[in-house]
Amino acid sequence: MQTVTLNNGVNMPIIGFGVYQVPDAEECENTVYEALMAGYRLIDTAAGYMNEEAVGRAIRRSGVPREELFVTTKLWIQDAGYESAKLAFHKSLQKLQLDYLDLYLIHMPFGDYYGAWRAMEELYREGKIKAIGVSNFLPDRLMDLILHNEIVPAVNQIETHPFQQQIVNAAFMKDHGVQHQSWAPFAEGRNNLFSNELLTTIADRHNKTVAQVVLRWLVQNGIVVIPKSVRKERLIENFNIFDFELTTEDMAAISTLDARESLFMSVDDPEVAKMLGNLKVDL
Predict the structure, then answer these.
(1) What radius of gyration do the chain's Cα atoms show?
(2) Site annotation (Lowers pKa of active site Tyr): which residues (predicted)?
(3) Which domains does the chain have, with CATH numbers?
């Protein structure tokens, strides 16, 4: 398994399996189990995905030794704050049936995430979390968090795909030792990604699929990926990206697809902050 080394020395698989939008408990458990059987060792979930219990069952069912796994979950906005973050962490840990987490992320840069970060720093020092990080943080908020806290986030998970390549953010994170991780590597199929002429041409040349080309492009850029599929053959296909390499010309061609804007939501939009800040989830 190819890994990246985080800023605290922890090794993180460069490819994992994400379970966003897999709320059905049986389906989630089965797909995570199949992913683990296919060789995935990084599993990415979140309290807000409402499937931590199913992920926990799949892990126990798989029989994969705990030390071989890298399990990530995330703190939702309504639990941001010192005391509430600690409570939310232990609740997630209980649902996952684990003794510790490999990575715990602040899901959104809203609410009292400073209080949450202090709680996460304490949990990290106690050995209950191997690494702590954030998600959806733009450079200004990431810099502010770095400046005023003791621990630099190990990871920032942000929207990254061929149409939103995050070049500026990626450079900033690299300069400050924060590992770049992609969510929505396939842009959820938007902009007709899977039939894109350029990506299709590159895929045909390598005898691979567009999905494999996109994932290979990301990992060659040093970006951790967490593709999702509920189909066994697709999750196996997504994992099979280490037997080919994109050329310099391929990489340059894909860079021309960058539209430099989100296909989903802009976290620096006040209306997005208002909407997410008012969203209450029954966790």
Answers:
(1) 18
(2) 74
(3) 3-278 (3.20.20.100)
CB atoms within 10 A of CB 64: 17
Say whether 107 counts as a known binding-site residue: yes
pLDDT band at 1 (very low <50, low <70, confident <90, very high): confident
* 49 is annotated as an active-site residue: yes
Q: pTM here? A: 0.97
Phi-psi region of 231 (alpha: psi -120 to 50; beta: other; left: phi over 0): beta
The neighbour count for residue 176, using CB atoms within 10 Å, is 15
Q: Tally Cβ neighbours within 10 Å of residue 204.
A: 12
Contact 239, 40 (CB under 8 A): yes
What pLDDT score does 23 carry? 86
Per-residue b or e along 115-148, where b marks 16 or more CB atoms closer than 10 Å to that residue's CB: bbbbbbeebbeeebbbbbbbbbbbbebbeebeee
* Burial grade of 275 (CB within 10 A; 0-12, 13-18, 19 or more): exposed
Annotated catalytic residue, options 40, 49, 104, 113: 49
> pLDDT tens-digit profile of 138-169?
999 999 999 999 999 999 999 999 999 999 99
Span 179-224, pLDDT tens digits: 999 999 999 999 999 999 999 999 999 999 999 999 999 999 999 9
